[in-house]
Amino acid sequence: MSILSEIIADANPWHHWPDSIPSASQLPRRAAFQTLRTRLIDPSDRRAQVLRGPRQVGKSTLLLQLIAELLREGVDARRVLFFDFSDDRLRGTPSPRDVLAATAGGPESMYCFFDEISRAATWNQWLKQAVDKGQHRFVVTDSSAALLRAGGRESGLGRWDETLLEPLTYVEWLHLQGGAHEDVESILARLPGAFYRYLANSGWPEFRLTSAVNVRQRLRADIADRAIHRDLAHRGLDLDRVLQLFSYFAQKSGRSTSIANLARSVEPSTDQATVRRWLEALTDSALLWQLRNVGSNSLRAAFSDAKTYVCDPGIIVAFSPLSEPLHDPETKGAAFEAVAYRQLRELQREHGGELGFFRAGKSAANGKSAAKEIDFVYITQGHRIAIEVKSGTPSDKDIKKFMTATDLFGATRRFVLHGGGLDRSLRASGVQVLPMQSFLLDPDLVLRS
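RESULT FIELD:
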């Protein structure tokens, strides 16, 4: 038996034992599961499905859950093929064509699940041709930003859909704490301090049961060794400097981004074009997100006025130099903003619309900002929603300042999300004041209130 055939046999036990259901199928399903399943079983939709996202975010688990669902629905086990192109037993870089050739003699039509597809030789040209042929259905994953490069986009035009999988939302994290069938209320009742544990342990599934100290060490190592030095290696960048830039944003998540200031602050000897390439590589890989100022009328100003966030609040905690990061008001505030933005991105994927922040006005001569700013604005379904985030209890002054900015923005709905002592939602001067956890448990409330 060849190495390729051996790997296929090991990865697909259901070919020989049809009752072999992947153990990952017992874990709670994420929102992307239903999207991919619907597209996969739709006979009129022949496009491939590309699932991308940072390493260790749960992409392989989601593939195994889709496989288990097909097997439960009665699909012939021999028609379901899983292959991981990162398997360390592989010699050279086999193409997906080689993998399918190694299964010769099997069913004419198969469901093919290919993990870490960009490690395969000529993957994008092959996938384009395979989709055009229409013989098999494909779901592929990748951790690197290779899928976003120009060649991949050109080949994939009209041939595959991309789905981004990010670290767990708060509700997804809670479900993983309790298993597939325990409700959120029961989990919260037996898990005191769940929200702060989520902030400290991050939304990476593998860390859900790990102590916070170990999470910080492991997450820093994973970001450095895997997400940057391995997954961005093909970009031809100075990866040590890219990691330095990422560390800068991990400690200053939510700050405004100026390429010129970054070049001076992070690496003074580096030109702005190089720093821009580093930043683009990190945003391509979904480790960083940039939020546009919807109050800017200029594309140039909009870019220079962007705010940059890390993809998960646990990164802020992990990269903090402090021993107790969440006891520090500035770090805690950054983590609160990051978790709100993580949930708002999920809301935007489900409902569409435009997500950004709002800033109007200029800085005063004395150095104190005279600008009016709103942390997040969400324009959707005919509404202009303004959201401010406070890690403590909002004061009357905070509410008044927020109202002034929302009037300039033309907000139709106003929310202040906080981590203070208020245990119920309050309305103040047309503003709905809510505990952060209430929003995270029911994010649709900003659309229906």
